[in-house]
User: Fold these one by one.
Assistant:
Number 1:
Amino acid sequence: MSALPARRVVAGPSAFSGDLRRFVSLTVALAVMEFKTRYFGSALGYLWQLLRPLMLFGVLYVVFTKVVKFNAGVNYFPAVLLSSIVLYTFFADATTTALSSLLARENLVRKIQFPRVVIPLAAVLTSLFNLLTNLLAVAVFVVATGVKPTYLWFGFPLVVFVLVAFAVGCSLLLSALYVRFRDVQPVWEVILQLLFYASPVIYAIEVIHNQTARQVIMCNPIATLLQQSRHWLIDPSAPSASSAIGGTTRLLIPIGIAMVVGLLGVWVFRREAPRIAEEL
Amino acid sequence: MAAIAPQQADAGTAVAPPSAVSVEAVEKTFRLPHQRYSTLKERMLHPLAASSHDELHALRDVSFDVAPGEFFGIVGRNGSGKSTLLKCLAGIYRLDAGRIEVAGRVSPFIELGVGFHQELAARDNIILNGVMLGLTPRAARERVDRVIEFAELEDFTDLKLKNYSSGMQVRLAFSVMVQVDADILLIDEILAVGDAAFQQKCFDVFFRLRSEGKTIILVTHDMAAVERFCHRAVLLERGEVVALGEPGAVADRYLELNFSGTAPDDPERLGATRGGDGAGRVVDAWTEDADGVRQSAFAQGTRCTFRAEVRFEREVEAPDFAVAFVNAQRQNVFVAHTAHGGEDTGSFGPGDRAVFSVEFENSLAPGRYALSALITRRGSGDAVIDRLENVFTIVVTGARAAGGVVDLPHEMSVRRLSDGSA
């Protein structure tokens, strides 16, 4: 008989530990599968993934430029609106699917051993695929509306990166809590609505004349990210996140909120991971 | 057993034998809340309710070692903890105490086709399932053709899984499993699937894996499979190891547990319906094996003895003693009665004691039997001194249940009388 492979202790499930390679291939395989199947039954298939934000854009565009005109005078407002919708939709999509992902993938969780964090991560990754294709549409639209490319564009991937990281943090927290408390779902839906209106999506931040209200809005990490993406990607003359919140130091508030949520997510998920298979 | 697991035989030497899987004093308890509060509102309305729960002790102090290359069976009745044990081995449940070590990659097959997606084609599912079971995506892609070939599904590769019959899905899943080369395979109850031809193929695979020296742990109800494949087996009952070792013996013990319903030395004795005038009383009754050890389970073909101890309260002249074995269909399968012998049983006075014994070759069919004891006055069949129905039950175990009520010692032969073609 050949030499025995190294012995190891079977430690039971955990959030993160395990073979990194398997971790990555599992996450990707799950995300790809989800991506492939999400729009399988519909005639337009994957096009829906593009059409959905575009149609939302169409509705909001008509309402907020033709009916309600408080955004008049905002440079490239359609481009701002579309890019904001795409970024916000990613965040909402990723966190909503991740929230119920552990329950939806119950058969995996209960039947095989793997780092549990793979499941919410795969959900975020699926949404990320959609975000990347949507961003292509945004790029085309931005160029078509006459926005001049600047070196500030190089900052935009940073916005996307931070947004994804924040989405991951929220997803860990939500998915772990959802195993125990099913009411996390409706609560999160309401919070997402709140975040939508508390972010400069359908309005530009400078149309809020009340200084305090503006600064409160900018404490929301999503608002910070959207504002900064507008500044970097579309209109360098628009206020950056730091000037909108009233000083760079104040940026520590949204950054702090995001970090606390993220760390809380990691902590809760780690704590819950070993027993998820039993609690489901 | 020693020949099959040489590493085990060396256990006496100073160096511990390397085992492929070692399970040491494993404990697992599940908390079963009396009522599940899964919304915040309910939790707020019942802030203390969370503390109310039952504990299900699913595994208690389970220990065993599996040698490399051993085919090891885990058997037990429903709810005995065998699937929990397998999930602990697979790392799906966290242990409450104890330690499990494995040498090599473990592939758990708790269920066939984990992660199969009905909307995807067979090819995608093979890759996905392969990755789940521990292959790299590249290795999984390379094996797709072999998997499909083994499953004999060449004509259906691009069909969505939902259009497969359930049998085809099982074949596909099993084929993926076979192509994932792990060092240690954990297999839960999958022999019962597929048509006869595919089952034979599964058996062939098991034999092949066995001869290739894979370590395999099989959870099953199927004692025939245990005796056919396993080198050793462990029997769990209420989370505890009740038998460990040679598969035949473990299978016998399993049948015994299954038939007796309760643990063998359950004190459900002498509790039954009682009648008679009370001039004498059966104070104890039991069965013994050939070595005189009290038993309630007997293998077919062994020698066993029924004994009843009787104490007399009044003068009784030449009483008759009888014992009846009643099967599950309430038939008297075997009755032994001193009246038929005709010999004098003697006279007894108050305080006298006697033991009535019936020794017999056990040719009862496998199953459960209730025993009734009877003491009557001689000559008058209805003058009952003591009548005890269902004093206790015994279990007869045996691998060959031909279907008869008894299994008498017999010889068989087939002799050709004439040759039709001549």
Note: Chain B touches chain A through 46 residues (CB under 8 Å).
Number 2:
Amino acid sequence: MNLWAKLMRYCRRRSPWLFHMNGGSCNGCDIELIASLTPRYDAEQLGVRLEGSPRHADILCITGPITHNAVNAIKTVYDQVCGPKAVVAIGSCPATTNVFIDSRTLEGPLNKHLPVDVFVPGCPPRPDAIIRGVAMAAGILAERAGKNLPVEPVVMPLIGPGCGGACGCGAANHAEAAAGEVLS
Amino acid sequence: MNMTTALARLLIFPGVLFAVPAAWFFLWVERKAVAMMQGRIGPPFMQPFYDFIKLLGKNTPPREGVSGLLMRLWPLIAVSAAAGAVGLLPVLPASGGFEGDLILLLALLELPSMCIVAAGFSSRSIFGEIGSAREAALSVSYNVVFLLAVVSIAASQHTFRLEALAHLPATPLQFLGVAAILICLPAKLHLNPFSLPNAEQEIYSGPMTEYAGPELAMWELSHGLEWVAATGLVATLAAPHLTTWWLAALVFVALSFGIVLLLSAVASATARLAIDTTVRFYWQCTLIFAVLAVASALFLRFRS
């Protein structure tokens, strides 16, 4: 791998810009995504920036069970994000349609329509888990860029006050663990 | 004034070689200062550099025809104008080099914002057009004050030459002018009370909505260079006259840094104003002081 490619990989995993898209979510996950940028969790330490335009974004964060109305919008926005890109499904809804399963107004789950890279389960997931998922997606994006590898979604472990160390963090502060992971 | 010093000033200090890292540094200082004011830790030191390299490696959507060509061109014009403006700053004492005057510097400082207006309209995005219209309205309102302040400084010193302006002993009127320029800087740099044109989330990204990859990298760089040029202009006008070149450079960097901190503090402490409030602020509140400054400068000049 030449020097430029190495530098590019290094920079890509340190600068994930997000675009947030609501696919019929109840707003619970949206609030948690915004909470991950607030002083308590401060995702900007990892270079995360919430962008206003999908053209600027690297990672598309999708919440909600993908309603009939949202599905075409989500596909359009996915095409508007310039490559290399990754998709993070936030919450249990885009993964399984959650409690809305079998509803006739739904087109979910999300991976029927888009190649999802990281699932962050939870109803809603904690901001720590979202930051960790985004950091993971940034890593995947950096590794995959240019190689055109097939997408194999990563399912993040459920973390929370009672995670019992399942996420491997071993610490109360998951954001710190995530930071350590992405910067190592 | 020979060719070598002119090139050295344009390419090394305070030109491109100094200006580009300084642009990234000021972008970082702004983000870090806002983060610290909000009780966050903020981005790592190299963040603007990472963002720039990452954006260079991203794809851009296919652009066709004249508007596609223009969309690639605007960011480049903005970057070169801002870099030229930084290169013109009379930082080092009596070093010779290209002696531009204040009018050229003002024109180069104004070009990036004109490019932003044009860029929004040529992107044909509705949000880009709204952003461009706001940028144009904002530019018309703060520029009157900005130009009057500059005219008052020039009139009080009897010259439009940058070199002379930086090195003549300061008059009290000059400080009034510098204060007026300082009030215009948040609008010029799209900082928070006047961050209307790119109003994040509100109108997506304003004029930048359709720009991606390397084009966006150039916009980020031109924004950083605008920071360096605009704070540098205030720093050179406010700095005391020093004959040692390294001391002059040091004072220049320290003053610019202080102004960046001040502007970031203002940005994080305020919320975005509506366009009519902004225009009223510049036309009604600030204009009076600018007119007073010009009037007293002219009055003093005719008396002397």
Note: Residues 162-166, 168-172 of chain A have pLDDT under 50 and may be disordered.
